[in-house]
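Lab notebook: predicted structure, single chain.

Context: the supervisor wants predicted structures on file for every construct in the current expression panel, including those that have not yet been purified. This is the next one on the list. No modifications to the sequence; it matches the entry in the shared construct table.
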Amino acid sequence: MKLQSILSALSLGATVATAQNTTYLTATAIVTDARNASALQCWEFTDPLQVPSTPGIAGAQRFKFNVSSATEYTVIPPRFDGGLHNAPQNQFVIFASGLAHVTLPNSTDEAWILGGANGLIVAVDTAGSGHYTTYPTDQTTISFALPFLGGEPPAYKVRSEGACHGDTQLVED
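Prediction complete. Output recorded below exactly as produced.
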């Protein structure tokens, strides 16, 4: 699908120089923990990026998003306060531009998500205490919400509690 190719390009802008290593995608996930409170985790998706033979991206690296057709494009005004809320459904969110700040009502954990190549997060806290999202800059933020097909995220492992850190969402094994 054209939309999935565009979204893949938005979220996977980093370049990996070595082909012999296996590369995986990571993302900060907003989850509901055992105490029914929203929490942050760093997820690594267990399916590695693939090298497609698709014309136009042959030889690049691609992660296939298994998402429903209910994708949404949202224009968020500068300095917008999204308030306390839960994820409306289990989904990827890609911030194509702007800056999002995610905080939790029962924790000091936070995530800063800069729109662009590393703007992918997972939101699966459909129950529990919820999270706050604010957009603290004078820039408009563009986001895409991509609900998971069947409500289930791709297979993953938890790399760590708390938000992912670093300057790329790609890790090599």
